[in-house]
Every structure is written in C-alpha cells, then in structure tokens.
Amino acid sequence: MKIGLHRVFIPRMALARIYNVPPMKTPGGVLLEIHWTLLEEDEPFSIDAAALRERVMPVKIANVDALVLGVEDLILHLCMHLSYQHYLQLGLRGLLDVAMVIHKFREEIDWQVLVNIAKSWGIERVTALTLELVETQLNIPVPSEVIDLLLPGGIDHELLEEARTLLLDKMVSEEHLTPDLVEMNASKNLFSKMKIGLHRVFIPRMALARIYNVPPNSARIIGLYWERLKYLIRSYGGTMIKLSRTKETVLPSVERAQSSYSLHDWMSSRNNLSS
After folding, report:
1. Could you tell me the pTM of the whole model?
2. 46 assigned to some structural domain
3. Which residue, among 116, 115, 122, has the nearest Cα to 146 in the 3D structure?
4. Residue 146, domain extent
C-alpha cells in the first residue's frame, strides 16, 4: 500500500514546534496522521510521552496487534481535543466521543488515576468543564468527587452556561474572527493594532514553511511573507473593514468570539483553581 506525504517533512531538522508527521493519504482516500505528542503547538500544558507509553493497552485492529492509549489518557485527550483545541466547536458530536468512552469503559476507569494525570498535564479546568458537560448534556454519570478533586469549589454557574451555549450554538458567522482580530477590535491604540497585524504576517519561518509546503531553509521563504500578507488581506480584510465601519452588524459574532476566547483563556490558566 502506497502512502503519500502531503507536506514537506525533514526529520533531521529541529522541529520542536511540530507535533505530528504531515498527513498521509492512500490512493483509496484513507487519511493517516501520526502524532508523537497529543499537544498542538504553543499549548500551555505538559504531557509526559514516556508516561503515556507506559499506560498503553494492547488491542487488535483489523486483526492486527496494536497499542492504544490507556482509557484515562484517552478520556483526557478527548476532553482537551473538544474543549480546548477546538473551542467546543465540535458540538455534541465531540462531546459524544467522550461520553461513549466513559460509558463503554465505566467499570474499568480509575477516576483517581484520571485526576492525577489531568493535574500532571495541567488540564484540570479543561477536564472538569468537559465532564460537567458530559453529565449535564448527555446524562452520562461522573462520580461527584471527581469534579471537586479537579476543581475545588466546582465551576461557576455562569461560566458553565457560557460553555453550554458555545457547545450548542449552531450560528454560522460570515466573519472570520480570530483571536488577533478580536484583540485588534478591542484595542483603541493604533500602534497596538499595527503590532498585532505585523506579528500575524511575520510568523516564524518554520511555520511559514509548513503552510506553503517548502523546506524551511529554502530561498523562497522571504518571498512567501508577501504571499502570507496577501492571504491575510484576502481572508480577513473584509472583516476588518466591517469591524471598523459597521460594528453593530457584527456585534453578535464579536461577542460570541470574545466569549469563546475568554473561556479558552480560563481553561489554560492554572492560577486560583478554586475560582
């Protein structure tokens, strides 16, 4: 079976910011993406890959021996994937993934182990919030002490309602509101706005190489910053004009984006876990 790489990949180079081999695809359309960590770039968590390997379980897939994540690691990965990495935008489909694993392995889950791993990763808030949604939205029971162990004092009711609204929200926005655009919209300082914009154009060359599928040491990299600028103007220029001229019409989208990014920041914070 032939599998083709869809992006440049140079193992010899220092790819510390990359967490997976570029997606590979068979002629029949099967997509394979090999990860060596569960974290995306620049995420404020810490996962011990060696510890993950110690907890893997042997299974058979298509009659082939394989290793999969331990059940507690799998649940935590799904919580992080839905709530933090995808901003709850996978909706009930993503929540159902968590619920089905909990239901299937309900007799095997060691909840204290799950809590300990969540704390070692730094995802107590991510996990507590997701498990609360699993229980309240899909009626999958989670031991009451688990939330208290993860987040003493529990989750603020308004914050939980905010998360539930984002999870169930089917509104499709015409505006492409990234965290940077939300920050630029909130800033009243022209210099600060320009600084944010330049930061989005002049990204690290390794990131630029991945986007445009060229080796990071290619001479083409410099010219690709111009391509990057044109792409940003095409993709977000219209939204920036709307934000500057007709803020009332885009206010619902802005408020939703602000709510999403605010919740995202809360999940990544480890300070004052009782709040």
Report:
1. 0.73
2. yes
3. 115
4. 42-168
